[in-house]
Amino acid sequence: RSATVSVLYWHSWVGHGTMFLPMEMIEKCVGSRIWVINRSNKEFTALLKGFDDYLNLVLEEVTEYEKTAEGYHKTKHDFMLLNSKQIALLVPGGEGPEAETKEA
Predict the structure, then answer these.
(1) Which residues contact 20 (CB under 8 A, 6 or more apart)?
(2) CA 62 to CA 40: how far, in whole Å?
(3) pTM of the shown model
(4) How far, in Å, CA of 9 to CA of 59, rounded?
(5) Residue in 60, 58, 67, 18 with CA at minimum distance from that of residue 38
(6) Residue 2 above 50 pLDDT?
(7) What is the 3-state secondary structure (H, E, C) of 36-87?
(8) Confidence check: pLDDT of 3 > 50
């Protein structure tokens, strides 16, 4: 079932004229801010400094958001290497969960 969804998504993505492969999209984001949503209860906003062939991310000026019953607990980090196996979603230019809560 997920293969069917992936194929449908890929087809609709290609149908808009320009096709970007995942690594190309991430390469365009190097040097800019991104919002990373993890498979766990953590999210990150950071400056993307680089990545490798496995899509592990090198992040700078990181704000880590951990979802709790009371809201989000924030922790600041200078640098972080984020393992790609934990990444669920990358949002180029995303401002994080706090910006999303303000808009709602």
Answers:
(1) 28
(2) 17
(3) 0.75
(4) 28
(5) 67
(6) no
(7) EEECCCEEEEEEEEEECCCCCEEEEEEEEEEEECCEEEEEEEEEEEECHHHE
(8) no
